[in-house]
């Protein structure tokens, strides 16, 4: 099984006719994802890459039954595109757009309240259920199906850990990139809950970093529940200078966010097995599964 997306997921792509939209739509379709339509205001009743284009998400959902969306829209309009998809009843939205203004994300967070939509991103690599569905820009070459769930804040480390797991015959149930921005949709806790309820996910790998509070929230959640599955974590940024932006907004270690060492300590106290570095993740997963 998997979380959030599978072979039956019907995907539409907002911004499909642009240069980036065309490139990633083609990659997504080549992987075998069930892409059913594109959305581009003013281009309705046309076709692109062999698929129908609609003026609005509502029209696309009504005509195709789409239940997931990939948002590849420039940053100034990305929030409007996400909110349009929420209002149309889309169940899973992936936004890969970088530099979405934070005040715009405030509007998105309000629109999500009371909805049944799960937002992944923005500034996300996306979500991948190997052999079934890819929504986003996550590489698929090394992905294999299996029982390890991965949720990550770092795009580059996601690719590395996924490849190492596959090389060790540790296939993945689903991999989720939660996004690198300070304000984003689904986080570690929400993914942990979904993986807990997935009977075929045997272990979960969290890939964390400095900044934000995802790791602390995960530790708090795990301390308060009998999770029933091993959780392995990698937290990077132990040697990053305080107060300096390291790559993206989510890694800015200010405003009360704890250092990597403090995050590691919190996770360990919650029963999480913490790998020393990327080289040790696979061995830690194997050890955890042996203990189970």
TrEMBL record:
One of its GO terms (biological process) is tricarboxylic acid cycle. Residues 4-100 form the CoA-binding domain. Gene3D superfamilies: NAD(P)-binding Rossmann-like Domain, Succinyl-CoA synthetase domains. The keyword ATP-binding does not apply. The active site is at 248 (tele-phosphohistidine intermediate). This is Succinyl-CoA synthetase alpha subunit. InterPro entries: Cit_synth/succinyl-CoA_lig_AS, CoA-bd, CoA_lig_alpha, NAD(P)-bd_dom_sf, SUCC_ACL_C, Succinyl-CoA_synth-like. Belongs to the succinate/malate CoA ligase alpha subunit family. GO terms for molecular function: nucleotide binding; succinate-CoA ligase (ADP-forming) activity; succinate-CoA ligase (GDP-forming) activity. Keywords: Ligase, Nucleotide-binding, Tricarboxylic acid cycle. The lineage of its organism: Bacteria, Pseudomonadati, Pseudomonadota, Alphaproteobacteria, Rhodobacterales. One of its GO terms (cellular component) is succinate-CoA ligase complex (ADP-forming). The keyword Zinc-finger does not apply.
């Amino acid at each position: 099984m998997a979380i959030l997306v599978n072979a039956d997921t019907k995907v539409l792509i907002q911004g499909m006719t642009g240069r980036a939209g065309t490139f990633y739509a083609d990659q997504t379709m080549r992987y075998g994802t069930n892409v059913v339509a594109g959305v581009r205001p003013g281009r309705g009743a046309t076709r692109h890459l062999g698929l129908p284009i609609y003026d609005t998400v509502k029209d696309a959902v009504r005509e195709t039954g789409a239940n997931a969306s990939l948002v590849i829209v420039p940053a100034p309009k990305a929030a409007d595109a996400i909110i349009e998809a929420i209002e149309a009843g889309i169940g899973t939205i992936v936004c890969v757009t970088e530099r979405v203004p934070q005040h715009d994300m405030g509007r998105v967070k309000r629109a999500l309240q009371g909805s049944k939509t799960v937002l992944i991103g923005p500034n996300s690599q996306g979500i991948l259920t190997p052999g079934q569905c890819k929504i986003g820009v996550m590489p698929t070459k090394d992905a294999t199906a299996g029982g390890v769930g991965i949720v990550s804040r770092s795009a580059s480390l996601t690719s590395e850990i996924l490849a190492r797991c596959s090389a060790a015959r540790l296939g993945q149930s689903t991999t989720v990139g939660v996004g690198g921005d300070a304000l984003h949709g689904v986080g570690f806790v929400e993914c942990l809950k979904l993986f807990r309820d997935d009977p075929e996910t045997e272990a979960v790998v969290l890939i964390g970093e400095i900044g934000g509070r995802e790791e602390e929230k995960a530790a708090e959640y795990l301390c308060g529940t009998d999770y029933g599955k091993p959780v392995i974590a990698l937290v990077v940024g132990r040697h990053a200078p305080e107060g300096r932006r390291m790559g993206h907004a989510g890694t800015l270690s200010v405003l009360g966010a704890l250092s990597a060492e403090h995050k590691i300590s919190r996770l360990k106290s919650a029963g999480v097995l913490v790998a020393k570095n990327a080289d040790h993740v696979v061995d830690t997963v194997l050890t955890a599964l042996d203990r189970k």
